Amino acid sequence: MKKRRIFIIGLLVLLLACPSCMVYFTGKQQESYKQKIINSIDPYKIQLLSMAVESKTNPDYVPLSFNGTDEKTQAAANDAINKIFDAVLEMEQDDDGFYYKAYNTKTNQRYKSQKSYYPVIYKQTSTIAKDRKFNDFNLREILEDTDIVYRLDDNYKLMDDGRLKVKDVYVDLNQIKINSPNIELTYYCTTSVSSMTNNTSRFVDEYDFVVLLGTALILGLVIFIYILMNSLEVEESVNPYRTIKNWKLLTVLIIIGLTCFTFIGASTGTGLLVITGELQRILAQYSVAYSTPISYCLYFFSMFIFYFLFSMLCFTVKYMFMNGMDYFKNNTCTYALYAKTKELGNRVTEFDLKDNINQDILKFTICNALLVIVLYVISPSKTIFAIVYVMISFLYIRKQSMKVKNDYKNMLNFTEQLSHGHFDTEIEDDLGIFNSMRDRLNNLKVGFEAAVKEKTKSQNMKTELITNVSHDLKTPLTCIKNYVILLKNTQADEATRTEYLNQLEKYTNRLSNLIQDLFDVSKASSGNIDLHPIDLRLQALVDQSLAECIEVLESKDIQVIKNVEDVVVHLDGDKTYRVFENLLTNIGKYAMPHSRAYIDIHEEEDYVSVIFKNMSEVEMNFSSEEIQERFVRGDKSRHETGSGLGLAIAKSFVVAQGGTFDIEIDGDLFKVIMTFKKSPKKSPNCKQKLEIRR
Q: Which of 28, 398, 414, 468 is the most buried (most CB within 10 A)?
């Protein structure tokens, strides 16, 4: 639950941070776009506009002064400048990228153009009469650097040599001076394209677009990495990821993929509209207050939806690769269609002639086809053919139906006999289509009988287990009880009491060992063994085990001959030592006196074999499987002390460490064969560890 909460909080933080970053970078790119528009303001057009407004607000304004020109040229120049003024005022009256307010300081008249809905990015107020730099401009420079003349009709044309052609008159612009107007002009530049600027594009630069696209991709990569970092189990427990993981891949691609593609397009479009001010203009045109903050909120919302859908696509990709082919098998329509087609093909192509039903169907189909052909050839008319065919088909189907009915009745009787416990009943008759069921019921009868025998054997083993445990626990307990009673006799001398105490200690140790053996074999049977494997030298462990068991071996004058290679295996030292100790103790108890026992350790290609061999003192009238059972002793008369658990414990410890434990009996030769996996090879400088039993 804690991991799930952390994942949700982290995802929400990312889904809020990524759109916020996009809004921030979009604002930065908008500043670049605004600066580009501001830098493209044409001062020549501003001067023309001031002069045009002066001519509108001051009838006595003479815009031009002449030097050495005739009256015809002057009239042509004044006509041209008036046409230019009209074109400028008409052009700027409905300009969305530029609007102005003008005040004539001489006549006190005001003049303005229609206000634009685009957001204002630059405001400037200038008084042309006091701004002396405009006096440095001449009419030729203004007309050459602007396209205003080209907006007039064919009667007005700017020549390549700098002269202005007005109908048939050529005006030398170098002989004309501009009279500064008395206009205080306040103009506003917006984000839209304007004829007063040299910015002719309403779109952002390719650089700005690449920056925004790169930022969006980097933020998307951050979300993808976050989805990869978290556990799949945590993610698929959260809606809507829990829902889409069960969708078909085609559904995910159509719904999530197309929606994500739509929103990235909408987000990109919204971002460009925000940069160019189009979205703010639309909102302001419909009298929506706070159009700029609302436009940024819309952009943030569209980016939020996009990144949310993108995170769902990232989860789908992760879930797809984590589940491998199982995902494509369970979630793709293509694979489902392939599976259905393959199944249909298998049904058509798979036709087992050994199956009785298929044989009957094939026989019926062939006979039916031959019958149709014969009757059709020899029949004098189609009516007689149809009647004969129907009669033969009826008789054949009736015969087969009666056979199926009888076979079913025999099968039903057989199952009733089995249900009443009569397992000696067996049916060998041909039951047609029920032959496979007959065979399975016969096998079921045999299997059930085997299960009953196994259950009986298991019950007998449990009874024998309880009997053996009771007997082995009762013997030392009875002795302990008797010696306690004898010790209570205060008339016994000190030597006798000491002998009683020694016997009491002996039987107490025997009972303790028996209980420990019972505990060990119980843990081994349940698989609850704690292993601590190390690199173990078997030769040293064999020497240590022989040293511990030397007394029991010397008591029967048993000579142990070793043929041991110095090999290293990765085993638990305590458990392996217990195995060797149990086997050597068994040799000391049951081996023939004055004989030899053998211990062989050999290194094979993939494993290490350990073999213990000795000659038995008594006849071994048991199998290798029986001697490995619990509470089974080599001395069935129970003359020797012990629990009968030694070999069972040894086998359990060997198997628990990934080895094998087998017993072979050949006459009086008793052989225990164990194998262990070899340790991985190490460098010569690596020191090998040796378990020392304390």
A: 414
